[in-house]
Design a protein that fits this description.
This protein has 79 residues and is mainly β. Helix content is 0%, strand content 58%. The chain is built from no helices and 8 strands. The strands form 2 sheets. A 4-stranded antiparallel sheet has the order 1-2-7-6, with no helix packed on it. Strands 3-4-5-8 form a 4-stranded antiparallel sheet, with no helix packed on it. The protein is globular, with a radius of gyration of 13 Å.
Amino acid sequence: MAEEVKTGAKFHNIILENRGRLNVSGVEDVDSFDEGAVIIFTNMGVLTVRGEDLHINKFSVESGDVILLKNASLQQIRV
C-alpha cells in the first residue's frame, strides 16, 4: 500500500560522502555540538551524530542545511 504524499510536507535528507562529509537538509536548529557529538533538530525530529573530530563547516537557518566534516570517523548516526 503506497503512502499518500501530503501537500506542504517537508523533506529531509541525510547524505554521507566518503565517510568524511555529512550533508543534512531540513534542519531547524543545532541544539549542541562539540568534537564528539552534534545534536540537530530537523523537521522530522532529533538527529544525533557521534564521532571524532567533528566540525560544523556550514549551518544555514535560511536554507535549513548543515554540513559536518570529520577528521577521523563517524561512529553513529541516530535518528
